[in-house]
Amino acid sequence: RREPLALINLKKKNEETGEEELASRLDHCKAKATRHIFLIRHSQYNLDGRADKDRTLTPLGREQAELTGHRLASLGLKFDQIIHSSMTRATETTEIISKHLPGVKKISTDLLREGAPIEPDPPVSHWKPEAVQYYEDGARIEAAFRNFIHRADAKQEEDSYEIFVCHANVIRYIVCRALQFPPEGWLRMSLNNGSITHLVIRPNGRVALRALGDTGFMPPEKITRT
């Protein structure tokens, strides 16, 4: 779902019409619409929870999600769907945001769960997961990038607006990959809870970053990064 030429089976190329036939088939596979991807980091949650089910949103986290939902609704866009991580904090954030966007379908996925995408460069002293984590989480998060971040399907006629509620590590990695920056630099970015990151994917495959970790819609006393 990226380069149109990759969507054509060249073995079936018509030998008589040659390049003319190829050009026609290429046009049929080219994207026409722009995709707007809104990556939302979950709100503040209970860090003391031992299991995922115990890591629920704090009262402040619920306020943050309300503010994020209100901000998204105020944009006046026709959102197509909300895809969210299956982890508790992301699911709860989604439920609150969705109240401000009635009728927008919600889809849960394990691909967007938090993890260690790739060993950061330069390394940091305060966060050193075991090497095996990078292999386990990295493949999954890369799969999430490939599955969700691509140009519009050729059949899509109108621009789309999609929300993804997930986690800081996942969002930072996706931003690096989408912009074709070295993914090892993902940890150089910082994202606030409930923040909005806006990626635009044009029909020609070019990607632009319109906002990174925006929380300008929140009062200063409501902003956290935990």
Task: Supply the key terms.
6 strands, Rossmann fold, 17% strand, 226 residues, globular, single chain, 6-stranded mixed beta sheet, alpha/beta
Structural description of this entry:
With 226 residues, the protein is α/β, with parallel strands linked by helices. The chain folds into two domains: 1-30, no CATH class; 32-222, Phosphoglycerate mutase-like (Rossmann fold, 3-Layer(aba) Sandwich). The chain is 30% helix and 17% strand. The chain is built from five helices and six strands, in the order H-E-H-E-H-E-H-E-H-E-E. The protein has helices at 19-29, 59-74, 88-98, 131-148, 168-178; strands spanning 35-41, 81-85, 105-109, 160-166, 196-201, 207-214. A six-stranded mixed beta sheet has the order 3-2-4-1-5-6, with helices on both faces. Helix 2 crosses helix 3 (88-98) and helix 4 packs across helix 5 (168-178). The mean pLDDT is 93. Keywords: Hydrolase, Membrane, Mitochondrion, Mitochondrion outer membrane, Necrosis. It is found in: Mitochondrion outer membrane. InterPro entries: His_Pase_superF_clade-1, His_PPase_superfam, Mito_Ser/Thr_phosphatase. Belongs to the phosphoglycerate mutase family. BPG-dependent PGAM subfamily.
